[in-house]
Amino acid sequence: MGTIQATLDRLDAVLRTAHPRLAAIGDEQATGLPTGMTWSRKQILGHLIDSASNNHQRFVRSQLAPAITFPPYEQDGWVRTQGYEDRPWVDLVLLWHSYNQHLLHVMSRVPEAKLANECVVRADEPTTLLHHMTDYVDHLEHHLGQILDR
Questions:
Q1: What's the Cα-to-Cα distance from 63 to each of 116, 121, 139, rounded to whole Å?
Q2: pLDDT at 123
Q3: Is 141 exposed, middle or buried, given 0-12, 13-18 or 19+ CB atoms closer than 10 A?
Q4: Sheet containing 127-128: which strands, arranged edge to edge?
Q5: What confidence score (pLDDT) does residue 35 get?
Q6: DSSP H stretches of helix in 37-88
Q7: Strand 127-128 and strand 118-120: pairing?
Q8: How far apart are CA 42 and CA 146, in angstroms?
Q9: Burial class (CB in 10 A: 0-12, 13-18, 19+), 127
Q10: Are 136 and 106 in contact (CB under 8 A)?
Q11: Residue-wise over 12-26: b if at least 16 C-beta within 10 A, else e?
């Protein structure tokens, strides 16, 4: 699992390295479905914005109670209803980067005693706040690989 500092360092490194690479992708490259993919680059980045939004709630609310249950995230519905494909790539990159800079700030302020608070998104898999933070960065790295390694 690692420590909170390791997770913060990973997120900081991802933001520093991925942002310029994302910004270098053109709107045309970000649009349309590549062979074998179910989402375009815009939709994947939109999914990462949704993930930031959902996890923002988790990271804040989990500090306010020793255990909390969250609604599940319906990723296809969120991506579909928000129409990320219709947004300019540069706007999506800016929103993604800004939101994640804020999450890095929020995560860095979590008192160590709160990291063990229970977060439940799936009833059969209760985990800790620290686990959710680490999993968030894992998830981010996975999907950035889908965008950047094509």
A1: 10, 15, 21
A2: 75
A3: middle
A4: 67-69, 118-120, 127-128
A5: 75
A6: 41-61, 75-82
A7: antiparallel
A8: 11
A9: middle
A10: no
A11: eebbeebbeebeebe
| CA angle, residues 116, 3, 66, in degrees to nearest 5 | 10
pLDDT recorded at residue 121: 87
**How many beta carbons lie within 10 A of that of residue 44, not counting itself?**
21
Give the position of tokens 């969120």. 78
Q: How far, rounded to the nearest angstrom, does the alpha carbon of residue 125 sit from its chain's CA centroid? A: 19
How far is CA 114 from its chain centroid? 21
pLDDT mean over 67-71:
92
Token pair for residue 53?
Answer: 């939004």
Let me know how many helices (H) and strands (E) the chain has, helices first: 6, 3
CB atoms within 10 A of CB 9: 13
Q: Are strands 118-120 and 67-69 parallel, antiparallel or unpaired?
A: parallel
